[in-house]
Write a sequence for this structure.
């Protein structure tokens, strides 16, 4: 419900909000232009009261009728000259004429465009609705962000997810206060314009104040004006020349009054109502007219609104309920295997499509649909497959919002009215605190509803193709047939890279590893594209993945990057695996050979941008991203490396680089273990040997990043559990605080 409360107003008002944001962004520069275009005052000292200013203006400007103090502090005098009405800048210190004042036609155009779209009252209704939509989106965004981050306590924790999701969260958190101010103030001013809030016609009738008709006294002697500080002035209307009965009309921040020009006394004063004061406050907050610095801050808020709409639309489009096209999708009533999908985006649908194709290849009739479409009866079904991701704090993804409520109305049965056998496959990211929480909830609820679990819940981390294939191999015992799942993710746009250098290790004991350095082939890039790339944020960085599909390969393999875009090269470390198609292909490349590859973000395994100590742990080729983090440590944060290799003579990857980084301060310390050395130890042994030191680092808020094989990662987890236990902490606590990250292969 909360997401709909946020999504639907955004979709309905997206174009209007962007339009209002663009015009508002333009108008945010008006106070800046006015500030630097206003003539300099002759004196830095302004008079303390309005009487002195009014007298000075009257002495310097003939036929003056009115003076106005703008919110930014400029004084404008309006008078009649030989050629008609004249507006002039006035020196607030002396009342001297500083030059002609002419409002900017450019900003006047955008002001009217922003207020009414040149559509009169109808336009003002639209802009008011835009303000209302922004207010609703701000409130909904606050609660959605809190839910996504795991509660208000973690509201400002590091955002995770896709690029568009992170941009939406980060931008929203930074700008929500400004956007809320703009929305509420804009909405109030719209309601005031249409008379829906604020006072109705004030006063009980018309009032025509008059002076006594005696000889006027000097303006500087008017006591009522002497009592008004210049900063409180809004407007002052002079009496008509030669009319001793006319009065001064004074408008201040607190109200409107009339002053007798013959004795200087206030004839009457009407204070502002609460609604008038509120309107003035909202006007200043909305326009930024009082400060060009604040106005630019409002402009930044308007710019963020544009970014939020764009990122939000991308998220909505990717989340769209329409799944990938599945050829030969059988009807639910005739299928013997039913696959229901819970997905926030489209990726889980891709895995469902692969499973559908594999089962169809074995002669089954298979239906794929969203979990929201759960039926009470599947006449011919034997198995029910549930493939689901998790949204936010353990919630259902978009296509599974209604699944549990539907299940509560009755468990699905077949034509014999027997509950179906079911399997649940959960998709998630272990770096999130509620990893596959919704899949666990579904698995438990299905069992409680009376369905028979055909196989224990299986979870897949970061859309691992390898884990999906492993789960598929286990289906043989469930359906009685061998099922091979070769999942090919959506095709990524590749680019050409040329192998520049290679360094080989471990050849002597049949554990070959190679450090491969590629350079992108930029022959198809224009000069403009190359220049633009220098000013764009880094497209990829150490810890991200380098995807390579070998010749005749069915799917890509991913290698952790040991370099960042700013390094100008792409570096990976490859361990040759027996029968490994991709690793064999890569380790047989020669300098000058070309490959096609692509980058994939690995946001859960990037070095945090803070100054906390970093503990890097890895083994074998898992050193690649860790070396990349060290290489990028230009600020010399405290970094400690624990790494394990096979042989100190033949298998010491990056030995020279580590020594260099140790000398220049990018690496604080290193503990290296070799399983074939004299001491025959593993990296977890080094952690235990330095347990007190590691514990102290953890007490200081250190972050842990682990990369390598599953056996190594398991041993490292055990070592850290032993180190954390005396501290009263656990690895799960570190994970929840984004202080323990793994990239395990």
């Amino acid at each position: 419900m909360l997401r709909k409360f946020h999504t639907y107003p955004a979709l309905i008002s997206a174009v209007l909000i962007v339009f209002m944001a663009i015009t508002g962004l333009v108008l945010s520069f008006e106070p800046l232009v006015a500030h630097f275009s206003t003539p300099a005052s002759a004196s830095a000292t302004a008079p303390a009261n309005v009487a002195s200013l009014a007298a000075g203006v009257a002495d310097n400007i003939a036929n003056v009728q009115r003076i106005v103090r703008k919110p930014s502090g400029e004084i404008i005098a309006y008078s009649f000259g030989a050629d008609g009405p004249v507006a002039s800048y006035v020196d607030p210190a002396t009342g001297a004429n500083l030059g002609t004042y002419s409002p900017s036609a450019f900003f006047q155009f955008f002001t009217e465009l922003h207020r009414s779209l040149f559509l009169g009252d109808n336009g003002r209704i639209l802009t008011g609705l835009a303000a209302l939509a922004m207010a609703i989106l701000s409130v909904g965004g606050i609660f959605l962000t809190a839910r996504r981050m795991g509660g208000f306590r973690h509201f400002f924790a590091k955002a995770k997810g896709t690029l568009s999701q992170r941009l939406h969260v980060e931008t929203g958190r930074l700008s929500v206060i400004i956007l809320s101010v703009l929305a509420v103030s804009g909405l109030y001013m719209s309601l005031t314009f249409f008379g829906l809030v604020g006072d109705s016609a004030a006063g009980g009738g018309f009032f025509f104040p008059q002076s006594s008709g005696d000889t006027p006294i000097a303006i500087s002697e008017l006591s009522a004006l002497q009592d008004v500080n210049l900063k409180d002035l809004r407007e002052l209307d002079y009496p008509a020349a030669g009319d001793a009965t006319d009065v001064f009309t004074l408008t201040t921040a607190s109200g409107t009054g009339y002053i007798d020009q013959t004795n200087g006394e206030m004839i009457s004063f009407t204070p502002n109502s609460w609604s008038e004061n509120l309107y003035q406050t909202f006007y200043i907050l909305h326009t930024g007219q009082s400060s060009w610095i604040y106005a630019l801050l409002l402009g930044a808020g308007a710019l963020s609104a544009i970014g939020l709409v764009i990122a939000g639309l991308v998220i909505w489009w990717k989340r769209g309920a329409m799944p990938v096209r599945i050829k030969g999708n059988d009807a639910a009533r005739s299928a013997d295997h039913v696959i229901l999908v819970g997905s926030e985006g489209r990726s889980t649908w891709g895995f469902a499509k692969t499973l559908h194709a594999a089962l169809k290849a074995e002669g089954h009739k298979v239906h794929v649909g969203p979990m929201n479409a759960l039926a009470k009866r599947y006449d011919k079904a034997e198995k029910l497959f549930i493939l689901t991701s998790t949204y936010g704090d353990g919630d259902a993804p978009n296509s599974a919002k209604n699944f549990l409520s539907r299940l509560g109305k009755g468990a699905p049965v077949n034509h014999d009215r027997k509950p179906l056998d079911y399997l649940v496959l959960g998709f998630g990211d272990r770096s999130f605190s509620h990893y596959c929480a919704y899949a666990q909830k579904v698995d438990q609820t299905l069992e409680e509803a009376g369905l028979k679990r055909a196989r224990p819940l299986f979870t897949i981390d970061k859309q691992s193709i390898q884990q999906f294939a492993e789960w598929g191999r286990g289906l043989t015992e469930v359906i009685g047939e061998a099922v091979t799942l070769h999942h090919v993710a959506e095709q990524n746009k590749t680019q050409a890279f040329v192998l520049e250098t290679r360094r080989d290790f471990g050849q002597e004991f049949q554990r070959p590893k190679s450090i491969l350095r590629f350079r992108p082939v930029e022959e198809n890039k224009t000069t403009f594209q190359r220049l633009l790339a220098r000013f764009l944020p880094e497209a990829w960085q150490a810890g991200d993945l380098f995807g390579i599909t070998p010749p005749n390969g069915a799917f890509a393999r991913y290698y952790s990057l040991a370099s960042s875009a700013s390094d100008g090269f792409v570096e990976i470390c490859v361990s040759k695996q027996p029968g490994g198609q991709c690793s064999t292909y890569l380790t047989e490349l020669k300098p000058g050979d070309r490959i096609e590859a692509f980058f994939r973000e690995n946001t859960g395994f990037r070095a945090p941008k803070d100054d906390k100590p970093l503990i890097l742990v890895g083994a074998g080729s898992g050193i690649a991203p860790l070396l990349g983090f060290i290489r990028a440590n230009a600020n010399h944060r405290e970094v400690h490396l624990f790494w394990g290799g096979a042989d100190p003579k033949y298998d010491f990857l990056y030995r020279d680089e580590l020594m260099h980084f140790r000398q220049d301060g990018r690496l604080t310390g290193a503990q290296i273990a070799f399983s074939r050395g004299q001491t025959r130890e593993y990296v977890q042994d080094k952690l235990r040997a330095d347990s007190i030191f590691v514990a102290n680092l953890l007490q200081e808020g250190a972050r842990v990043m682990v990369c390598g094989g599953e056996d190594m990662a398991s041993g490292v987890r055990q070592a850290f559990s032993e180190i954390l236990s005396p501290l009263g902490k656990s690895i799960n606590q570190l994970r929840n605080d984004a202080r323990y990250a793994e990239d395990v292969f």
